[in-house]
Design a protein that fits this description.
Layout (H helix, E strand, L loop, with lengths): L3 H4 L11 H11 L7 E5 L6 H11 L15 H7 L6 E5 L6 H11 L9 E6 L6 H12 L5 E7 L7 H4 L3 E4 L5 H15 L2 E2 L1 H9 L5 H15 L2 E2 L1 H11 L5 H9 L3 H13 L4 H19 L13 H17 L8 H11 L19 E2 L2 E2 L3 H6 L1 H8 L4 H8 L2 E6 L2 E6 L2 H7 L2 H15 L4 E6 L27 H14 L1
Parallel strand pairs: 1-4, 1-5, 2-3, 3-4, 6-7, 11-12
Antiparallel strand pairs: 8-9, 10-11
Helix pairs in contact: 3-4, 5-6, 8-10, 9-11, 13-16, 14-15, 15-16, 18-21, 19-22
């Protein structure tokens, strides 16, 4: 049985699906001063590992065709068969500690057993610990002459700047329509499959720009329907794959706070064996288009039933769900948790819980309705609204000051990095934003900036009920007690 993403894996640089990457690699491999330490960065399924393996053969080929590996010589065959001791692939997600990198360093300083160059491919390198990165730093800064390092990542932002500055970065990106079509065409022609244009368009639209997703999906369609594929087959395939719960229905239930219905339908999808990672990616693509429409890009008739603030919160929760998928033993659980977190107290109640958001807008013709002075005046009410939901967040807010209001965003000046980090956590931001809404009856986003000079916070006696507060109270000595309470709550 053919496995398309393996059978049609690129074997030469010119075969890479991303033309920009192919051109850059050819140029670098042809340079006399070729770098020894690379970073291949970009989304999953873009071809990073395939490119790394091609480079490993190219630098060791006995009969290269320019910079291309011949894939026929003894060295190329050994690498293709995964039997070379000089090509080491490491998954940093499961080998992320300092001892793993120390072992790698010891191996790097040994001469190759057979090949010209030792090649170390470190996948998901952003998963390394801080100590492991420090151990790797000197190695990539002054690599042994006989070594090549190729670090692959889907999250470049998590790699320390000291390491990034010593790597030559080659950026991979999601496939465009033409690039994806070219990749699919290789399989269609290679397998002699008959398929109509509309079916191809639908398959491409469901790939999320990932060549690997595209190839795997098409493989499933081929195994189910054979050599002759028509549009109805493809439509039925995707309906079955999503458990007949399409994106529009999901949005309607989410907007109407039908949490129980959503959770039940996700359970039914799990019984049918739906790929929840692929389904979550489809939701991301769907709501991204809704977000653009909300911002005036696209067809206004397709406006989302969620407002802009809710869309932002929902995106953040979908991203968090994606990060949880690797560790979740129950496939549907990360998405279900995202739904529960999003709806909060509003789940199937239609009430005004702390996280409820009406469709009012915070700006009119680009001008802020609320001024920073208004926020300062109502700050005691904000603290009172937040406190029942998270005492620590309320105490953090006590040591901050409202700095400015720009558009629909309150900029909060924070004077301790730890406080800033905690307030910027998604759940805590939502609590503050919801508290702001409850007090001012407008949608406000929160942005934290680190203050350079410590200023007096708006210290408030927060025991006053919200309905009895008329303004900012006199400063008290309660601030120190709250910082103690926060530390006690966090650290025990």
């Amino acid at each position: 049985m053919s496995v398309f993403h393996l059978k049609y894996r690129p074997q030469r640089i010119e075969d890479l699906d991303l033309e920009s990457v192919a051109k850059l690699l050819k140029k670098m491999l042809g340079d006399k001063n070729m770098p020894q330490s690379f970073l291949f960065s970009g989304p999953k399924g873009a071809g990073k590992t395939s490119a790394a393996r091609i480079v490993a053969r190219a630098v060791n080929c006995l009969n290269p065709e320019g910079v291309e590996p011949c894939n026929e010589c003894a060295n190329c065959r050994e690498i293709l068969n995964n039997s070379s001791l000089d090509i080491l692939e490491i998954d940093a997600a499961s080998n992320r500690g300092i001892d793993d990198i120390r072992n790698l360093k010891e191996n790097a300083y040994l001469l190759p057993t057979k090949l010209n160059k030792k090649v170390f491919i470190i996948d998901e390198v952003h998963m390394l610990t801080k100590e492991a990165f420090n151990a790797l730093l000197k190695l990539i800064e002054e690599p042994p002459k006989q070594t090549i390092f190729i670090l692959c990542t889907t999250d470049e932002g998590k790699i320390p700047e000291t390491v990034l500055s010593r790597l030559v970065n080659i950026e991979f990106h999601k496939g465009g329509k033409e690039e994806l079509n070219g990749s699919l065409k290789k399989i269609i022609e290679g397998e002699k499959i008959k398929i109509d244009k509309d079916s191809i368009e639908l398959i491409l639209s469901k790939s999320d720009g990932s060549f690997r997703n595209l190839q795997k999906t098409f493989n499933e369609i081929f195994l189910q329907f054979g050599q002759n594929i028509v549009l109805e087959d493809v439509q039925n395939f995707f309906i079955a794959k999503s458990g007949e719960y399409n994106e529009e229905e999901f949005e309607n239930d989410l907007a109407n706070k039908k949490g129980k219905i959503i959770l039940m339908r996700l359970e039914k999808m799990a019984e049918k064996g739906v790929d929840f990672s692929a389904y979550r990616q489809r939701l991301l693509a769907y709501f991204q288009q809704k977000l653009l429409t909300c911002l005036g890009v696209g067809n206004l008739a397709d406006r989302s039933k969620l407002n802009l603030v809710d869309l932002k919160r929902w995106f953040n929760l979908l991203i968090v769900a994606g990060k949880q998928e690797k560790d979740a033993f129950i496939d549907q659980l990360p998405l279900q948790l995202a739904v529960v977190e999003f709806l909060g107290d509003d789940n199937d109640k239609g009430g005004e819980g702390l996280q409820s958001r009406p469709k009012e807008e915070f700006v009119v013709d680009g001008l802020s309705i609320i001024k920073v002075e208004d926020v300062e005046q109502g700050w005691v009410k904000v603290l009172t609204a937040v406190k029942p939901f998270n005492h620590s967040v309320e105490a953090f807010l006590r040591s901050c000051r409202p700095k400015m209001v720009k558009g629909n965003t309150l900029v909060l000046e924070v004077f301790y990095p730890f406080h800033k980090d905690k307030l910027e956590e998604i759940k805590n931001k939502q609590i503050v934003e919801s508290g702001l809404f409850k007090v001012f009856n407008v949608e406000m986003l929160l942005e934290c900036v680190l203050g350079k000079i410590k200023k007096e916070p708006l210290v408030i006696n927060n025991d006053t009920p919200i309905e009895n507060v008329s303004g900012v109270a006199e400063n008290t000595k309660k601030g120190d007690e709250d910082i103690y309470d926060v530390a006690k709550e966090i650290f025990g």
